Amino acid sequence: MKLKQRVVLLAILLVIFIFTKVFLIDNLDTSAANREDQRAFHRMMTGLRVELAPKLDHTLQSPWEIAAQWVVPREVYPEETPELGAVMHAMATKKIIKADVGYKGTQLKALLILEGGQKVVFKPKRYSRDHVVEGEPY
Fold first, then answer.
1. Which residues contact 89 (CB under 8 A, 6 or more apart)?
2. Membrane-spanning regions, if any (predicted)?
3. Rounded Cα gap, residues 71 and 77, in angstroms
4. pLDDT tens figures, 47-59
5. Is 21 annotated as a binding-site member?
6. Which of 6, 84, 96, 131 could form a disulfide with 127 if both were Cys (CB 3.0 to 4.6 A apart)?
7. pLDDT at residue 59, rounded to an integer
8. Looking at residue 2, what is its pLDDT?
9. If you write DSSP's letter for every residue of 105-127 in order, what string do you get?
10. Which residues are paired to 113 by β-bridges?
């Protein structure tokens, strides 16, 4: 194989490698932190045994009233929480009436007021305490 053919073949392989890296590998969100977040989410869902079905078998028919009953000084929700799926479904499907930036703390939070007047807080991503967000965080 002549030198010119080798150079052309090497250039083609390099272009294929760059396209593969840019379009296939980098578009997959497979960072170690993301994989750990996914594993933690699956562990939480398995541990809670949550059914994401919007059914309430409770005398209180509002998911917000049910969730308000859970809060005690040492926990936000009990370990056995069959209604958690209905509460999560309500948070995901109710219309957002108003949104504001959350107050206090060092991380970005959105305060949302849902249909029916329920206030919820949304934190898009958790960062370590010493992480510095470069650029515009909002």
1. 52, 53, 54, 63
2. none
3. 6
4. 665 566 666 666 6
5. no
6. 131
7. 63
8. 81
9. SSS--EEEEETTS-EEEE-----
10. 98, 119
Q: Does the model's pTM come out above 0.85?
A: no
| φ, ψ at 111 (rounded to 5°) | -95, 120
Instruction: Find out whether 23 and 58 touch, Cβ atoms under 8 Å.
Output: no
DSSP-assigned beta bridge partners for residue 122: 110
Q: At what angle do helices 84-93 and 63-70 cross, to 10 degrees?
A: 130
HSE value, Cβ hemisphere, 13 Å, CA-based, for 39: 7
Instruction: Tell me whether residue 38 is annotated as binding.
Output: no
Q: How many C-beta atoms lie closer than 10 Å to residue 76's C-beta?
A: 8
Burial of 72 (C-beta count, 10 Å sphere; 0-12/13-18/19+): exposed
Query: In terms of Cα–Cα distance, which of 85, 93, 91, 92 is closest to 53?
Result: 85
- Rounded to an integer, what distance in angstroms lies between the CA atom of residue 91 and that of residue 114? 8
pLDDT of residue 28: 56
d(C-alpha 85, C-alpha 50), whole Å: 6
Under a CB-based contact definition with an 8 Å cutoff, are residues 105 and 123 in contact? no
